[in-house]
Amino acid sequence: MPHPYRACLLLPVLWQAAAVCADEAPLADLTLEELVRLDVAAVSRKAQKLSEMPAAVTVLSAEDIRRSGARSVPEALREVPGVNVAQIGGGRWAVGVRGVEGRFSNKLLVQIDGRSVYSPLFSGVFWEALDVMLEDVERIEVIRGPGASLWGANAVNGVINIVTRKATVTRGSLVSANLDDQGRAVTAVRQGFDLEGIGALRVYAKGSELERSRAADGKSDLDRNYGWNTGFRMDGAGSGVDAWMLQGSSYRRTSVENIQTAAAAGYGGLLPLQFEFEGSSLTGRYNWGLAGGEASVQAYLDHQWANVAAYGKGTVNTADLDFQHRLVPSGRHEMMWGLGSRYTQTEIEATTAVLGITPPRRQFRVMSAFVQDEITLVPQTWKLTLGGRFEYSSTSHFEPQPTARLMWTPTLADSLWASWSRAARTPSIGESDATILFGLQATPPGSPFPAVAMVSQPGAGWRPRAERLDALELGYRHNLGNGSFEAVVFHHDYRRLISGTTGAIGPGVVPIPVVPYYAPIQYMNRGNVSGVRSTGLELGLDLPVTANLRLQASYTVMDTAARRSTDPITTAFGRALETSSPHHWATLHTLINLGRGRELDLMLRRMGAIGQGDVPAYTSVDLRYGWRVNRSFELAVVGQNLFDPLHLEYVSNFFPGQPAYQPRRGYVQGVWRF
Asked: What pLDDT does 246 receive?
């Protein structure tokens, strides 16, 4: 069952693109052995070796992204264990970590250079407005499991941290041009400048029209997604404890799709829906030495505006300040602490009777503090990490989010860890303030009315509380020298999930075009009334077979079960969560170096069936041929869905969108660096 309270998603949204680059990035040519020793920041808010992390972490380097043939962040995430990526339509994605996913997966925190792009309006990421220039991405860090003890509310099932390259390594020029088999183009340009001892600056601009989806007949185009973004990034000449960064961006995108309404009481059919997004942001960060340790402060301002024709429009303004301090190690202890503050102002104008927001203007404040202590129990063998974030929100009040992680490294190649974590998700504006006419539901034969109008509203006396997760995890990681193997078992227990219960009939009616020309209202009252448990296994393998052949594979199996209820609406919500993800999925990527700058990539994905939307299982095969013609020019040809002319990947659980099928596709890309 769709989540009616999120219809406020007809309103604004945020995205933030990263910066851009011209020279080869330092990660582009790293070996797997070097990647295992790579410094990653998303898990512990500090540079730390991947092999030393007591958490399920995957790092996609710039080379991994390039070899995948991805043209967007969601496509690049397809091969990560535990991450399920399904295309809903042109530029629209369902991205979930360890299930409970959807068009706006509200339990996944996405960051660009440590800055959140998670929107408080609908609790999630509007992927169709997120158009990152991948040539400037240094790496993507993916944490599977809670990260709330350091990153705060909404880092429930995972954290995706997109790290862009510093301007100091992107001096020079870059031009990227991409053309698909239907003649739609994606172009990007950027220029890097040396600031003569101060640091470096790069500016960029990108314009794109994304591929369209097809109707079930395989012929008709269903959607469009097009727009532009531009921005800059400046980095100081220093590094480590003496570094600063300033970046800004601006964008505009338009996304068009069809909404499919149920045939009830004389209504039904397809309604076109057009989203328009505009936004801009400015982010600054400064690192320095403090009391013998390292400190950093980051601040950003963000403005978002969105318009949904005939439904409404909204504005979101955010100011965020974050401070952290890593102290000098003392004996067996290495401590870190920090403070955070965020102020958000929203204004929503609903222009249809379908949606009501009360009050139309809101102000939100979040104050937080975190502390973490890494305790070396036995040098190079046993390590215990204790920490927690203590957050107060004006919407859900005080929420502690602790964690405990124990890691055992019996050899230099092996590591095992066990962890318990708690995380919370803050209610969105739609959940706390919206009244939504969800639709008409047909009544049984013989009823005095042909249908009833389903209206979602906050329950009487409901004081919204944050949704809560308690997570257990057991993992093993083995370094294969120039490769790695990882196995993780997890159990997630979700409580206080926001869903609906059956309310009273009326008062009030909704006009309909058939006798008796009106339908009574059946209210659905929102509250923290649901719970779900999920258990799963994630396997990941990165194996060099020969000097010119490498295999990357992943397999995930997962079961989700909702707590049963006697209320039919609550039960329907639980069943929707149970069936929102496949039971299992697997990927295999074969990387072949042909010599003389030529390379071949064969990618296979097997996705299980998804009950929500009756999406059947499918197998997809992609092929990429790349040729580094010289030091300045690189050419790639990619074919997608080679042996499957048309398949369905996901049916939107927000807005009852027309099922959009993904056809066989091809594109060619050229990248010039000079």
From this structure: 96
